[in-house]
Write a structure and sequence with these properties.
With 107 residues, this protein is mainly α. 62% of the residues lie in helices and 0% in strands. It has five helices and no strands. The protein starts with a helix and ends in a 10-residue tail after the last helix.
Amino acid sequence: QKYRKKKENQFFAGSDSNNNDTLVWIDKLLQTPIKDHRKFAILWIISPYLINSKGLSEEEAFHIIKDWTLKCNEVGGLNPWNVDSKIKDGIKYAVNGRKYPMGLPVL
C-alpha cells in the first residue's frame, strides 16, 4: 500500500503536497516553445497543471494552452492536427480525472 502511494506520487507532481517548487518547470515549459511532443504535454502535463494545480477555469486554461501552441508553431510546424480538439481533450481529462501533472522525474 505504501509502495503504491509512493509510486503514484512520483508519477504525478504535486499529488502529495501543494509545494509549488516542484511545479516551477511547468511554468517554464509554458514560456518555452517546443517542436515535438506537444500533444503529450497538453494531455499529461499542461492541462492537469492549469486545472488541478493552479485552479484555473476551463476557459482560462484553454486560452493559455492555445497561446502556447501558437508559439510552438513558430518553432516548427508539424503535420496538421486539430489543436482545439486536443486542448479540449486534455482539459476534459484533467477535470474528470482530477489528475495532477506528470512529474519531472518520470519524464
